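Data deposition worksheet. Section B asks for the primary sequence of the deposited chain exactly as it was used as input, without tags or linkers unless they were present during the calculation. Section C holds the resulting structure in token form. Section D is free text for depositor observations; keep each observation to a single sentence. Incomplete worksheets are returned to the depositor.
Section A, Depositor: J.P.
Section B:
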Amino acid sequence: MIPTRARRRPAGPVLLLAFVAVILAGCGVAATPVPAPVGPSPTAVIAPAATGTPVPATPVASPSPSPIAATYPLTLTDDEGTAVTIAARPTKIVSLTPATTEILFAVGAGPRVHGVTDADDYPPAAKQITAVVKLGAVDVEKIVGLGADLVIAGGNSFNSPDAIAKLRSLGIPVVVVYAANVAGVFRDIGLVAAAAGEGAGGQALVASLQAQVDAVVALVAAAGAPRPRVFYELDATKQIYTFADGIVQDELIHMAGGDPITTGSPTVFSIPLEKLVVADPELILLGDAAYGTTPAQVKARPGWAVMTAVKIGAIRPINDTLVSRPGPRIVEGLRALAVAINPTLRLPPAPAASTTP
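Section C:
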């Protein structure tokens, strides 16, 4: 699920910190805390101030989008089961995750977004908006000062439950979203759009995205290529990090024609080298390529030479933001995975991405 800071390569333990943030931002999954290295603790960004106490990643059923023609006051049920009443069509919206910012722009609510996170990098216009979340910490006072009349937050402790409770206590409606799978991403697009008063835009976007996903899945199936065991690397500077079980990216790799090697836990993102060797990946995808990781570096790692993917040179970089961020560009992530898994696959040109202002 996967929240993304600007692509700068941190050094040492900060790199681990960035990947924990990437996992949480994209997936909305509460990662099991990892031992703190010397220097800044990687959990300092996500707990307690940024995310609160981590909780198991239990899938939460998302509600169906509200009707297109919204009548206010409007009451919606968010992904945590909270009934949220919005008094009037929002004019000052705050988004607390990069994915929900992308959704708001894609459905036509961009001009009404007044607060975002310091990790928001798409569309480019989002980078010019006031940051109300820095290093995972939600600035409640700044949100209140902006006059926000709607906040969209990340669930499963991605955003601090205490901050969400505080905002609600001040009379600001907060809609919390958490997508446990691809269908959940689409439901959340509809939910965010409805909350923002852009139900029609949300339904049109979901229909387009679903059609694109169906087309890619059909082409992958028609190709009839073998399904390689795929290891998706998020980080390997200290421990080895990949996707946990049963999250959006696990499903995307399946859809794209691969057999994902995950950690064996829905909440843990680290995998021991010994377990990875036994799993024997036939393809390694480098989600950390943006941080400078190269196939040559992977080949040179002690203990990795016995893996099939290393032996045959099947180590490929991939755009992790597209794969990890559960928003409108999820189809681009699926397409990137499908071509990385089967380079001979020919996909039709993708429709131009919508970032309606």
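Section D:
Residues 175 and 214 are 29 Å apart (CA to CA).
The radius of gyration is 20 Å.
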